Amino acid sequence: MAGFWGSRRVVVTGGGGFLGSYVIDKLKEHGAVDVCAPRKREYDLRDAYVVRRMYSALRPDIVIHLAAVVGGIGANRERPGEFFYDNLIMGVQLMELGRQAGLQKVVGIGTGCAYPKFTPIPGRQEEPWNGYPEETNAPYGLAKKMLLVQGQAYRQQYGFRAIFLLPVNLYGPRDNFEPSASHVIPALIKKCVDARERGASEIVVWGDGSPTREFLYVDDAAEGIVLAAERYDKGEPVNLGSSFEISIRDLVDIIAETTQFRGRIRWDSSQPNGQPRRKLDTTKAEQEFGFRARMDFKNGLKKTVEWYESHREAFRGSRHLVQERPA
Fold first, then answer.
1. What's the CA gap between 186 and 171, in Å, rounded?
2. Which residues of the chain register pLDDT less than 50?
C-alpha cells in the first residue's frame, strides 16, 4: 500500500499524543512521506477560523482525527461540559470545513464510552444507539459519537468520505501517566510502582474490582487505524479491539505482580464501579480491512511497565486517587 500513501498528504490531529505518535509511525511504515501533525498551540481546532487556516496552509488529502480532550473517570466527572463541548466542536468543524476545502477522507476515532451502559457482550457495531452510556462518561462518549452521525449525514448528502472507528481502552509505552489525565492501566502501574518504592503496605483502588474491560495495545490500534484509512470506505462504524476481556480485580493482580508490588490491595467499594462490562465484537475489522490484534496482553503490560520504569522521573511526585478505576 506504499503507493496509496505515497501520493497523499495526511494530517493527524492529536499527533503529539499517545495514540497519535504510533499512528504517525505506522503511516511511515506503510509508505506515507507527507504527514503533518499540527499542535494545539498552532491550530486550536475549537476555533473555526483557525481550522480554515489549517486547511489552507496544510492542504491535506486525508485527516485522521485523534485530537480529543480525554481523561479518566475523575476528569470526566469534574469537567463534563468541557469534555462535551470541546470534543463535539472539534469534530464538527473539522469535518464541515474539510468538506468545504475538498478533503478526500476523514477517519474519525470514537470510544467505547459511546456504547450503552448495559450493552450486550460482545458489543456489536449496531448497538451504540440501544441505550444511554454510563453516566460519568456520557458527555465525552456522546460528543465523540456525533462524528459518526455527521459522517453518515455528509456521506448521504454530499458523498463525503468519512469513516468511524470505535477502539476499546488503549495501553502501552508512551501512555500518559499523569494522574489528572491517565486511564486505568497507567494509573495502576504508577500507583503500584510508587507504593513499591515507598515500601507502602497497601494501595487503595476504587470500586470492588468486578467490572470488566477489553484492552488494545496501542501499536495494534495504530495498525488498525491505518489499515482502515487505506481499505475501508463505508458509513457503518467498526470496532477495534483485542477480543480479550479481563476483570479490574484480575488486572490489578497482574499489574501488582508485574511491578513487584507485594503489599495489600484494598478496594474502596464506596466509590462507583462504572460500566459493568465492556468487550466489543471485533470480527468486522478483520472482515473489512484485515485487522487483527497481535500483542499478548501480559507481554504488552510488561512492555508498558518497563517503559514507565525508565521514564518515571517525569511523573514522580504526582498522586491522585480518582483515576484508579476504569473509565
1. 7
2. 1, 319-327
Q: Tell me the pLDDT tens digit for each residue of 203-214.
A: 999 889 999 999
Residue from 140, 217, 232, 308 carrying the catalytic annotation: 140
- pLDDT at position 75, please? 76
Grid cell listed for 296: 499478548
Residue 144 and residue 128 in contact, taking contact as beta carbons nearer than 8 Å: no
- Environment class of residue 198 by beta-carbon count within 10 Å: exposed (0-12), middle (13-18) or buried (19+)? exposed
Cβ pair 169, 184 in contact under 8 A: yes
| 271 contact partners, CB below 8 Å, separation of at least 6 | 206, 207, 325
Q: How far apart are CA 115 and CA 34, in angstroms?
A: 35
- Residue range 300-322, pLDDT digits in tens: 999 999 999 999 877 665 544 33
- DSSP letters, 53-67, are HHHHHH--SEEEE--
For residues 141 and 199, give the distance between their C-alpha atoms in angstroms, rounded to a whole number.
38
* DSSP conformational letter for 130: S
Separation in Å, CA 24 to CA 59, 108, 225, 310: 18, 15, 11, 23
Instruction: Confirm whether 140 is a catalytic residue.
Output: yes
137 vs 111: CA distance, rounded Å: 10
